[in-house]
UniProtKB/TrEMBL annotation:
CDD domains: ACT_RelA-SpoT, HDc, NT_Rel-Spo_like, TGS_RSH. This is GTP pyrophosphokinase rsh. Belongs to the relA/spoT family. Residues 382-447 form the TGS domain.
């Protein structure tokens, strides 16, 4: 355990004017209060508050925050109380300790409605003094570093809570280093095999290519010296979880990922940052679409940096971040930079964000939210998202989370513009409404009188503001239609478990789900805010535990007219569990597409042909074809092993086609018959973990005509 003298020395490193006597008294008081208490590991409990305080010294925080860390568990776990802490260490520290105590008592991983209420309390605690969150995040970081002493089930619970709430919160506050460490510590618990697989591949890669980081760092320093730029260069391999997430997002295996190394260049001035960018781009080829200038367009938490990705002669990509020392301080500590010290004085960093303004900006759109689910969704989206910056035709900047679409952009301007949106132009070119916006694009929203929000927009919009506005409008405009569709969904759901969706049954379900009445329940069911499974489970939980018989093909899709047939579109091969939409064909019934299918752009101007559809929420038979594209090693027995693995996942291979044969690898398309999207993901994860599989991804044939489905 770190001694009081050593802790004070850590503080003195950045704040020589620290009140050493006050910190020593807090250390002694905390040690006395926790005397006799032990952690799961068997160590004295006070080792934990001291470690939390040490983590906060790395962020160069003020004396009050360090003392709060030493005392953060005293009010809850010892005979100390608020009055005693206030008397000995002042009202400021007492309020901070009390705030951390209240935050600790929130069960942030509980059920959705309760979770929404707790998020409100979380934001209230943050709004009073953000240092409460800084202590809590450091508390969670030390608990995750020592998590192995906990029971396995407790480890999983803490790791999931960390991954869902605390890691994204640290990132939103600009503390990227803490976010990465929290994610990786949680990943170690939640998926140890996946993490070890990535580490093994890293070791293999280093053995094959040598010390890439040292080589590229040297090359960058040489280019900067040649250009007369004084700067520091640091390189590192990305964390295993960061690599894993990229593999999932891009649907690629490790061998196909290129930008697994990151480099950071710290310059003396802002002008040098741009000169550095020029020097880097002169030496290495820039990757199109991977440049972001957060210096001219900083993030809301004060983050400023230039990001670019470059490609070397061997085709390997590396990410480069360029920023000044002051920008780097904010990038490391985020919103905490407001309290940090440098050389004994409060840091006068011009880039540090005022925490009060940051909190106000984060919470302003939630103040009027009455609906707990809407609030929870909005706050999670706002808190966990990165940002892109787009422009209106007049040149005004509109900030949106990454992945935002023109619909989100329209609602960001004004709810009225969003409701009336019929199309959009991006950089002067007409694009579908589900297009993902990129940094620096100019977006022109096309509106029309009489237009109203469409239900399919809920699948396209990603911001809480847009989704909430769309839901409200849909409830008002299309309430009767949703109630009608909801009745059909409820009827099918209850029939599946051998019951009837009577008015009394639906009233009971509404009561259990805390909804006003059965009409509200049916409207939400029809608008996809509730699933039939959730409604049935509210009344007959014991019947929904076992899914029973598989749903016959003729009843797999809900939302069709009586007697109307359907076919799955061969271009996107939608699976149960995916969001879907139907396109009508005269004399051919309805063709079902995945909501993100490229082919849907062909029907953008024919809204009358679109049909709102849902997959039945029960268990489906394994009869739905999907195609996987695999790249495998050309060794004896590999293909047989792959086929065996697929069979072990209860997936039937219906066709196999070789599309490329090379001396060292094969590329092939495998058609498999599956139950649903979950089975597909499970199968792909298992294949990705196989050492002889270089790459696996879902294959969709864009050349297939939707009409061919008939």
């Amino acid at each position: 355990m770190i001694s009081a003298e050593d802790l004070i020395a850590l503080v003195r490193n950045y704040n020589p004017k620290t009140n050493a006597d006050r910190i020593a008294r807090a250390y002694e008081f905390g040690q006395q209060m926790h005397d006799g208490q032990v952690r799961h590991s068997g160590e004295p409990y006070f080792t934990h508050p001291v470690a939390v305080a040490a983590i906060l010294t790395e962020q160069r925080l003020d004396d009050a925050t360090i003392i709060t860390a030493l005392l953060h568990d005293t009010i809850e776990d010892t005979k100390a109380n608020y009055g005693k802490v206030s008397e000995l260490f002042g009202e400021e520290v007492a309020k901070l300790v009390d705030g951390v105590t209240k935050l600790t008592n929130l069960q942030l991983s509980s059920r959705e409605t309760k979770q929404a209420e707790n998020f409100r309390k979380l934001f209230m605690a943050m709004s009073k003094d953000l240092r409460v969150i800084l202590v809590k995040l450091s508390d969670r970081l030390h608990n995750m570093r020592t998590i192995k002493a906990m029971r396995p089930e407790k480890q999983v619970q803490k790791a999931r809570e960390t991954m869902d709430i605390y890691a994204p919160l640290a990132g939103r506050m600009g503390m990227q280093w803490m976010r990465e460490e929290l994610e990786d510590l949680a990943f170690r618990v939640l998926n140890p095999e996946g993490r070890q697989s990535i580490i093994r591949r890293f070791i293999t890669l280093q053995r094959e290519t040598g010390d890439v980081i040292h080589r590229i760092t040297g090359d960058m320093r040489f280019e900067l010296e040649k250009a007369g730029i004084e700067a520091e260069v640091f390189g590192r391999a990305k964390k295993p979880y960061s690599i894993w997430r990229k593999m999932q997002e891009k649907d690629q295996g490790f061998s196909r990922l290129s930008d697994i190394y990151g480099f950071r260049i710290i310059t003396m001035t802002e002008e040098d940052s741009y000169r550095t960018l020029g020097a880097i781009h002169q030496r290495w080829r820039a990757v199109p679409g991977r440049f972001k200038d957060y210096i001219s367009q900083p993030k809301s938490n004060g983050y400023r940096s230039i990001h670019t990705t470059v490609s070397g002669r061997d085709g390997k990509r590396v990410e480069v971040q360029i920023r000044t020392r002051q920008m780097h301080d904010v990038a490391e500590t985020g919103v905490a930079a407001h309290w940090s010290y440098r050389d004994g004085v409060r840091s006068e960093n011009p880039f540090a964000v005022d925490p009060a303004k940051w909190i106000a900006n984060l919470t302003e759109q939630f103040d009027s939210e009455d609906d707990h689910e809407d609030f929870l969704e909005a706050v999670k989206l706002e808190m966990y998202s990165d940002q892109v910056f787009c422009f209106t035709p007049k040149g005004d900047v509109v900030k949106q989370p990454r992945g935002a679409t023109p619909i989100d952009f329209a609602y960001a301007i004004h709810t009225r513009i969003g409701h009336a949106c019929v199309g959009a132009k991006v950089d002067g070119i007409r694009v579908p409404l589900w297009t993902r916006l990129k940094n620096g694009q100019s977006v022109d929203i096309i509106t029309a009188d009489g237009q109203t929000p469409q239900v399919s927009w809920l699948e396209i919009a990603v911001t809480g503001k847009a989704r909430t506005a769309i839901r409200r409008a849909l409830r008002e405009v299309d309430r009767e239609r949703f109630i009608k569709l909801g009745k059909e969904l409820a009827r099918a759901g209850f029939e599946h478990v051998g019951r009837k969706a009577t008015e009394k049954t639906l009233d009971t379900a509404a009561k259990h789900l805390r909804l006003k009445d059965r009409h509200e329940l049916l409207a939400r069911l029809g608008s996809a805010e509730l699933t039939a499974h959730e409604v049935v489970a509210a009344v007959y939980p014991e019947l929904t535990k076992d899914d029973g018989d598989a749903i016959p093909l003729r009843r797999a899709v809900i939302g069709l007219e009586p007697g109307q047939s359907f076919d799955r579109a061969p271009c996107c091969q939608p699976l149960p569990g995916e969001r879907i939409v139907g396109i009508t064909y005269r004399g051919k019934g309805v063709v079902v597409h995945a909501i993100d299918c490229d082919r849907l752009s062909e029907f953008e101007n024919e809204p009358r042909r679109w049909v709102d559809l849902h997959w039945h929420s029960g268990t489906h038979p394994a009869v739905y074809g999907a195609t996987l594209e695999l790249t495998i090693g050309n060794d004896a027995g590999v293909l047989g092993r792959i086929c065996t693995l697929i069979g072990e996942k209860k997936a039937n291979i219906s066709n196999l086609e070789f599309v490329d044969r090379k001396p060292d690898f094969y590329r092939l398309l495998i058609n498999v018959e599956l139950r649903d999207l979950e089975q597909l993901h499970s199968l792909m994860l298992m294949l990705e973990a196989e050492s002889d599989v270089a790459a696996v991804e879902r294959y969709r044939d864009r050349t297939q005509s939707a009409v061919a489905a008939g």
